[in-house]
Design a protein that fits this description.
Length: 217
């Protein structure tokens, strides 16, 4: 009888230890997953990243772009339409990937214009006039024209912009964005993600479908 009680007691103790070990194992797994998720989210959006939209439905559209990129200029019309239609629901986050000769110059202009609240005006100017200063189809390489185009932006202090372009933090932004792009497997622009899902087809329909899937799910 004593042996039977001893066996039952041992089995009971083993069962309790199993339950406790399972609990701590699952807790540890959840903690690790949370850390991975947190780290992953940082790859998409940094504190310094330029953001647009009210984001009432917690939908983040991240675009890795290059102001000198021909495809970015063309696809910017699609992104603008998306923003116009869904700015209340979404947040568009701009990240950089400097793949061209004058990319750094244009990013410096953008970040310096941001100090004066003129970021979107300057980015729009670079894309709408892209064929004049950086058309890769026509082998045009005239970044000096940008200075003249900047003069058409109301309220932009170009002398201050030239000073702010030398801020060393801009180099840090370019380097961090490139590191994040590499970690995410991004090599070309434009590359877009909607709540962490990469857009596989660069079309208006594909982008709207992906965003609307998140809005109406």
């Amino acid at each position: 009888m004593q042996n039977k009680l001893l066996v039952l007691g041992s089995l009971g103790l083993i069962f309790i230890l199993y339950i406790v070990a399972t609990f701590f194992y699952k807790s540890e797994q959840k903690s690790e997953q949370a850390v991975i998720s947190l780290n992953k989210s940082e790859l998409f959006v940094r504190d310094y990243s330029y953001k647009m939209g009210d984001n009432q439905k917690n939908i983040t559209v991240v675009e890795f772009l290059d102001p000198e990129c021909e495809s970015c200029a063309i696809y910017s019309e699609v992104v603008k339409k998306l923003y116009k239609e869904y700015y209340k629901d979404i947040q568009i986050v701009v990240r950089y990937l400097d793949n061209h000769k004058n990319s750094k110059l244009t990013i410096q202009m953008l970040e310096a214009a941001r100090v004066q609240g003129k970021y979107e005006e300057v980015l729009n100017m670079m894309f709408t006039k892209h064929s004049l200063w950086a058309s890769h189809y026509s082998s045009i390489d005239k970044p000096e024209l940008l200075w003249g185009f900047l003069e058409d932006i109301s309220g932009l202090d170009i002398e201050k912009l030239k000073i702010d372009m030398n801020n060393p933090k801009i180099d840090e932004i370019i380097a961090q964005d490139r590191a994040d792009a590499t970690a995410l497997g991004v090599t070309g622009t434009p590359t877009l993600f909607v709540n962490g899902v990469m857009l596989n087809e660069l079309s208006k329909q594909a982008l709207f479908d992906l965003v609307e899937k998140e809005i109406y799910k």
